[in-house]
Design a protein that fits this description.
The structure is a homodimer of 206-residue chains. Chain A is mostly helical. The first copy, chain A, folds into two domains: 18-70, Arc Repressor Mutant, subunit A (Orthogonal Bundle); 78-197, Tetracycline Repressor, domain 2, CATH 1.10.357. Chain A contains ten helices and no strands. In chain A, α8 (125-143) crosses α9. The radius of gyration of chain A is 19 Å and the shape is globular. The interface between A and B is large, with 44 and 43 residues. Chains A, B: Residues 41-60 bind DNA.
């Protein structure tokens, strides 16, 4: 479901129109900023905006997608996030590299780069939260094990992808900046895989 | 040799004083900006500043160190760069991670982070050039082989370190941001080693 999907039904409380969509976004922006991502519910946003929760879902999809709309994330993150859930665990590293770089190199790329720069300069706290809460939590949930909650692994994996992002899209370190996608996947995928599921501490290999 | 070392001798052409040092820096800044790092020589900078080349070396050391002074690099890069030359090739990845993060976590760290932010926002082209020309070329020369000039490897390694820098020092992704140095070395060192000397393409392992 895209954040820009036009309403096909109407709510009981407010007509489904542009003002309603804007009211939901305003309410969500205030809630997320005040209470944070975890403590904000679709129900609370709907109450603030005086609409039915179903209308929030109808316009924006999941809480993650509502958040993406609030931070004006330039692309629907759901297709990429769904890859995190569907890729085989032993191919997750390469799958993430391929999906994420595919988005950077898409028509939405310039918007992502602009947002990335804002995050890097500290001008986009909500977008930063979006990365850390929504995206990373989804990855962490996928790789968590009884003896390893995955937090350290995810922070290492995000460092890897941030570095490829900065080198490829922000300061343009060649030849990585121009490297074909397949070559980047071959080079970076195994490192990502190691961070996500391989040995990352100094203990002897068993 | 530090850029702040006070002169112990005097040149024949100009007295070795604060003005001379400033004149050399001005000449170097103009040369580096106009001709780039590679095409700028100590001799040319000395001629522009109307001093003897030996005085430039005396004040600033190598061309790399002169460049570091021009971009107001907050720490003498030579101790880190010398590690690139002296570490065993099969331990280069961990050695670089340990040395570089050691500098970030040192008293010079805040200055490095400030400069890093400027590079990320495109406000520090000379500093960017410093990274790409001086630092990376030194690494590339170390790992180059007859069948592999090392350019792709270095760009992947710099992406890895940029990512750790951004995650640890700029947007503070936990737990990586607070991870002890030894743990970061254990986690990131093997990835760096792979980028520098391991298999990075998709061809079958031999």
């Amino acid at each position: 479901m895209s954040a820009k999907r036009s309403p096909g039904t109407r709510s009981g409380r407010r007509p489904g129109n542009v003002d309603t969509r804007a009211a939901i976004l305003d309410a969500a922006r205030a809630r997320f900023a005040e209470a944070g991502f975890d403590k904000t519910s679709i129900r609370a946003v709907a109450a603030d905006a005086q609409v039915d929760p179903a209308l929030v879902h109808h316009y924006f999809g999941t809480k993650q997608q509502l958040f993406a709309a609030v931070v004006e994330f330039p692309v629907d993150p759901e297709p990429v996030l769904s890859i995190i859930d569907s890729a085989p665990l032993d191919e997750l590293g390469s799958a993430i590299v391929r999906a994420v770089i595919g988005v950077w190199d898409s028509p939405a790329g310039p918007g992502i780069v602009a947002m990335g720069r804002s995050v890097l300069t500290g001008d986009a706290d909500l977008a930063r939260t979006f990365f850390l809460k929504v995206v990373l939590e989804r990855v962490r949930a996928r790789i968590a094990r009884p003896d390893d909650d995955g937090h350290a692994r995810v922070s290492l994996a995000v460092a890897q992808m941030l570095g490829v992002f900065v080198a490829r899209k922000v300061i343009c370190v060649e030849p990585l900046a121009s490297m074909p996608l397949d070559a980047v996947v071959a080079a970076v995928g195994p490192s990502m895989q190691r961070y996500l599921t391989g040995q990352i501490d100094a203990s002897p290999t068993t």
